[in-house]
Amino acid sequence: MSHELNTGGDRGYLRIATEETFATRGQVDAILRSLRDGTADKGIRSLWGFYGTSPSQRATEVLDRLLDLGTQRIAHMDAAGIDLAILGLTAPGVQPFRDVAEACALARDANEQLAAAVQAHPDRFVGLTAVAPQDPEWSAAEILRGARELGFKGAIINSHTQGQYLDEPKFDPIFRALAEADQPLYLHPSTPPDAMIDPMLEAGLDGAIFGFGVETGMHLLRLITIGIFDRYPTLQIMVGHMGEALPYWLYRLDWMHQAGVRGQRYERMKPLQKTIQGYFQSNILVTSSGVAWAPAIKFCQEVMGVDRVMYAMDYPYQYELDEVRAMDAMDMPLETKRKFMQTNAERWFKL
Fold it and tell me: How far, in Å, CA of 247 to CA of 296, rounded?
């Protein structure tokens, strides 16, 4: 694979990358402070102890790219033939911070910086609203502000908030706001909370290699099985990394969930209006971030439908030009590939 990577649709489609992240200096400084004062959990110490303090080439390169919302990022998009990037605040967002007012201020600042970048490069960047779930009502208002004033096309939450998950009733204002704005939620990974991280941490498996997917996949399952899509039938939730492995488990997830409902083993496990696979076909969207692998992409298209699988790169954590070429070279009908690379993103983000 050696073809040129050009923007502009010379292969019959634009390339829209749907899970690309950035950081702000304020966010990074607050994370580094939490490392120094001992308030960071084990996952943040592992993740940002590396990306925030290591002198290694990977750490310094990724941090530099995270903080750039201009020339360098666009140059890298041009080199990879990426026409448009959907941008969200990188993990862990502002969710670990115990000072709620500070968390809200940092999220608002991130949104202002992103809005300015989108305004400066409207044909290259699309924004997702960052929130502070520590304050659900503030987060709901910020989602509506992002949609109505800043021109953002969805919201992003970096999985758990200090070990708490969005299926808890107190977070319902966030989902009400998403439904009111008719915008999707991108459920992005974060490091597992202290309650589940130890066996992964000791093996070096706590990050993107495994822990991210385990934790975020569980989070999505908690939302599905609590009935979030029965309460909000039009809600769309996006997850990356080919669905955090859940599409490949759907048969077993459905069989065991239904057995659990029949057996009345768990108080919270109630009958749902659809099967878990049914929600994957009506309310869940999957992106290929970090998984430039045709067999996985085609499998997701088969079990979810070709309208629900979208391309993503996972910049700056994974930036490989040959991965873009591999996506171009997939043995796939052009119209299906166009949906994957371009038109599904245009539909679901209302571009």
Answer: 9
